[in-house]
Design brief:
Distance between the termini: 10 Å
Largest sheet: 5 strands, parallel
Number of helices: 5
Strand order of the largest sheet: 2-1-3-4-5
Radius of gyration: 16 Å
Strand content: 15-25%
Structural class: alpha/beta
Number of strands: 5
Length: 185
């Protein structure tokens, strides 16, 4: 049975390069993985005063969407050398209430994406800091920084850069092994 992976994209932009890279990864992934895109765009901002037995509906929906999945694959752009606020907000909401994190123990990996040459290195490592606290075993290698993303897709959103496609195919094969190793049988 395929392991169920949450795809969490940190960009809300309609033509998001992070989302295009995520779709490419899904296309190139081995059959041992299945995917569910988690929409973080409608999740209201975290406010501890609202984290009661009756939290906002968008919080409950996010937590309930993540909880039954086996693993997580994060795709993030870089905003001011860090992850976008919307992604951090989703991470914080699904980690609450304390002791009931929907993320707990789920193996994960990070792919950072940028139209610039550095591939959102800062965002990748900023996100990894949170993953340590969340008890999410993050795949250490290969690291995935996709730079120059604005030049990699045709008008239909298909990745045309063969070298990056080959890298992402290997990345997804390694991720499938990581997930198999770090999820209960």
């Amino acid at each position: 049975m395929a392991k169920k992976v949450a795809i969490v994209v940190g960009s809300l932009r309609k033509g998001s390069f992070s989302r295009l890279v995520a779709k490419t990864c899904v296309e190139l992934a081995p059959d041992s993985l299945s995917f569910e895109f988690i929409d973080i765009g409608k999740v209201s901002l975290y406010n501890q005063d609202q984290d009661t037995d009756n939290p906002p509906a968008s919080w409950k929906e996010l937590r309930d969407a993540i909880r039954p999945l086996d693993a997580v694959l994060f795709f993030t752009p870089e905003y001011n050398r860090g992850m976008p606020g919307m992604l951090k907000n989703a991470i914080d909401i699904a980690s609450r209430p304390y002791g009931k994190s929907a993320w707990d123990g789920k193996p994960c990996a990070v792919v950072s994406v940028s139209p610039g040459a550095m591939g959102a290195f800062g965002a990748n490592h900023h996100l990894r800091q949170s993953l340590v606290f969340l008890n999410m075993p993050a795949m250490p290698q290969p690291e995935a920084y996709v730079g120059n993303a604005a030049k990699m897709f045709d008008e239909g959103g298909k990745m045309t850069n063969d070298a990056t496609r080959e890298f992402l195919k290997k990345f997804m094969a390694t991720y499938a092994v990581w997930v198999a190793r770090h999820t209960p049988q």
